[in-house]
Amino acid sequence: MSMNWNPLILDDFAGVNYSGDFTKLKANQSPQMYNYIPRKTNNKRSLRKREGCFRDHSIEAGPSCNGLTRYYDGSSFYIIGKFGNKIYSINPTDNHEVLMTGLEPSEEIFFENWLGGFYFVAGNKLYRGEPEISEVTLSDENGNVLTGEKPTGTIVIQHLQRLWWFGGHSTPFFSETDFPDRYATRDNPAYLRCSVSLDNEDGTNVVAGLSYNGKLIFWKHQKMFFVLGDDALDNLEVVRFAPVGAYSQNGVCYCGDGFVRWYGPDGIYQYSDVTGLVRISDAVIEELKEIDTRLRAKVCAGWHDGLFLLFYPIGAEYNNRGLAYDPTKGEWYPIRGWNVAKLCKFEDGSLRAGWSNAGWIKKLFIGTNDDGEEIETYWQSVNFISEVERCIDKMRFGIANVESEVYVSWHSDTATGTNGTLYKRAMPPLGDRLADKDDLSGGGFILADAGNLAENASLLVDEEQIKRQTSEFAPRLRPGQRFRELYFTIREKSMEPHQINYLIAWTQPTRRL
């Protein structure tokens, strides 16, 4: 009678689903994982350990980062960051230059690069850096110093060649075209007319905004607005778009795939003019609920290499966790070990992060360790449930690009108590070798390792590549490996990379008629 084998095969890995309900998980999703970002290998997604980070300067600038930008003055690039009550020009090799001091230590700064300088608002005053920082004198449309009402806000962004101020109120202000320091007044020069009202009567503040496809998007905590047209064309219009809000400017991002994505009280959303408004956070909403309401404005969003990134605090006063979202797959991948408060994309495509609990700026997604520290990975499978009691007979898993030990464990229901762990060891090298064609004793074309090659023989597969392919194979597990419910875990901690290509467990019923 033939054996009734039922192999459990995992060879196409997806992301996490924190719902807590196994019935809502796809077969290739995980209820708990971190520091793996699946990437396609041979048309399927392998579990690939994330890359590391690297601190590219040696002097700690302050307690945490509250502002970050990349600035080019026409001949040189600068990293500008706010730490504590100071703004620094960060030099990767020498002492940092203090550009400004006396700021509120916890105040966030949002930089905007425009017209050969960078701009920001602090204490309702507009500043410009080149990189030396000076306060901007505000004028009316004719260049006369403003003596009456002045624009106010906490954030500035550039849109249609105007500088827009917002934050702290419901009335964004805008400058004259090509003049960040000039603001149009009414018939009485003591009062400004260069503003739009975003439901002033509701008593809530605008908290975030960005320029997108020729229009402005503004958010309150529970509202989303479009500002269309331009004052110069006399067609400025406000459209209340949706009852969906954001928490802060730090948590919104114009992504490289043409979508706007952000974090707010109703979850994480994405918007484009083509698709409209879509919520994308259902799989991770239980995780987001754990963020302390006091700290949700700290959440930081960004974009890198096709991934939307979100960093947030859970169980800490600073951002200590992260999520990477792959919009092509609709999957989320948790990140641990990075404490990111601010993100900034550089002109070479690299991503820098200002740390949330230390005065560092670090380059992300580089190397195989976290600034000299080991990277820990973890992955858990769905719970496989069998209608009848089964036994595990043998297991195999494939690993690529690995030097460290990777542990694969299986865990069953408490009734049977099945559990155990395998770890990687080198498997026989993969690939065909071409032996000496004149050596017929070996059959001409034979399989052999490099040490057994005949004279003048050659390798069909590069030996270094072959050495980096490993696998674990357990031909027969000890008796009593029974289960009705079964799940697998993978864990590793090192300063080395690795990639899980597949996991296979052969099972059969313990009793057959």
Report on the structure:
With 513 residues, the protein is mainly β. Helices cover 2% and strands 42% of the residues. It has two helices and 40 strands. Strands 1, 2, 3, 4, 32, 33, 34, 35, 38, 39 and 40 form an eleven-stranded antiparallel sheet that branches. Strands 5-31-30-29 form a four-stranded antiparallel sheet, with no helix packed on it. The protein is elongated and about 95 Å long. The chain starts with 7 loop residues before the first strand and ends with a strand. Residues 426-449 and 459-463 have low confidence and may be disordered.
Task: Please name the defining characteristics of this protein.
11-stranded antiparallel β-sheet; single chain; 4-stranded antiparallel β-sheet; about 525 residues
| Alpha-beta content class | mainly beta
Number of strands: 40
Low-confidence stretches: 426-449, 459-463
- Looking at the structure, what is the overall shape? elongated
Strand fraction: 35-45%
Count of helix runs: 2
Radius of gyration: 29 Å
Largest sheet composition: 11 strands, antiparallel
Helix content: under 10%
Mean pLDDT: 88
From the N-terminal CA to the C-terminal CA, the straight-line distance is 11 Å
